Automatic annotation (TrEMBL):
Compartments, as annotated in UniProt: Cell membrane
Topological category with respect to the lipid bilayer: Multi-pass membrane protein
Sequence intervals crossing the membrane: 6-23, 35-53, 122-142
Organism: Proteiniclasticum aestuarii
Keyword tags: Cell membrane, Membrane, Transmembrane, Transmembrane helix
One Pfam short name: MgtC
Main location: membrane
Residue ranges of domain MgtC/SapB/SrpB/YhiD N-terminal in the record: 10-147
Name used for this protein in its record: MgtC/SapB family protein
InterPro entries in the record: MgtC/SapB/SrpB/YhiD_fam, MgtC_SapB_SrpB_YhiD_N
GO CC term, one of those recorded: plasma membrane
């Protein structure tokens, strides 16, 4: 295989892995930009090795036809090892915490990036780039559809008074992510009289939750002085 073709395939692998990894990095996931690039390059290298091994076998058989029954090409062997082996890396991005599981999407993107790297290494540019476009659409555009399908139709508001705002905000954000609660808007303020820092969260709840359950769960945190459903002034 020509050196120019090898460099082209590796460059496409960098672009493909980086495009998917950028979205994961933006969402602050455990496997981000560089990880996805490295996985895609690694898979591409494996398939390039397989291609070059097969070309070498063909050259040797053409030189000495008697070797055709001894030297055999197996396109799938190294690729199969990549597909199964990437599961260990993907498993490392999955976190089980207090009954919730996080990182499944990132694990799936790592597996997908590996398959795209194999496709690029074998020279299937149309397949790999078409799959890249579809993957980016799924990760970004379909998020809005997911929110509409699995969250309630109306937004709700809660007022929160903080004892220690930074720690309380971290706890609230973690709780919202765990419960798949979509934050529509956040409005921070400080009471001019007593200096109490507070916030109004506008949230969209999954259909399995109600606002009273959310308030009850968040009220257990010591860094929250008071939490209540917001009532708009008439």
């Amino acid at each position: 295989m020509a050196y120019e073709e090898i460099l082209l395939r590796l460059a496409i692998a960098v672009f493909t892995g980086g495009a998917i990894g950028y979205e994961r990095e933006y969402k602050n996931r455990p496997a981000g930009f560089r990880t996805h690039i490295l996985v895609c390059i690694g898979a591409a290298v494996i398939s390039l090795i397989q291609v070059n091994m097969n070309e070498e076998i063909i050259r040797r058989v053409l030189i000495n036809p008697n070797l055709k029954d001894i030297l055999r090409a197996d396109y799938g062997r190294l690729s199969a090892q990549v597909i199964s082996g990437i599961g260990f890396l993907g498993a490392g991005t999955i976190i089980h915490n207090k009954g919730s599981i996080k990182g499944l999407t990132t694990a799936a993107t790592l597996w997908l990036v590996a398959t795209l790297g194999l496709a690029i290494g074998y020279g299937y540019y149309v397949i790999s780039l078409a799959a890249l476009v579809i993957c980016v659409i799924v990760l970004i555009s379909l998020k809005r559809i997911q929110n509409k399908l699995f969250h309630g139709d109306s937004n709700m508001k809660i007022d929160v008074d903080f004892a220690k705002r930074s720690k309380a905000v971290d706890y609230i954000n973690e709780y919202f992510e765990k419960q798949n609660i979509h934050v529509v808007d956040i409005h921070f303020m400080t009471n001019a009289v007593d200096g109490v820092k507070s916030c109004i969260y506008t949230i969209n709840l999954p259909r399995s939750l109600n606002i009273l359950q959310v308030i009850r769960d968040l009220a257990h945190n010591d860094n929250i002085l008071e939490i209540r459903e917001h009532v708009d002034e008439q």
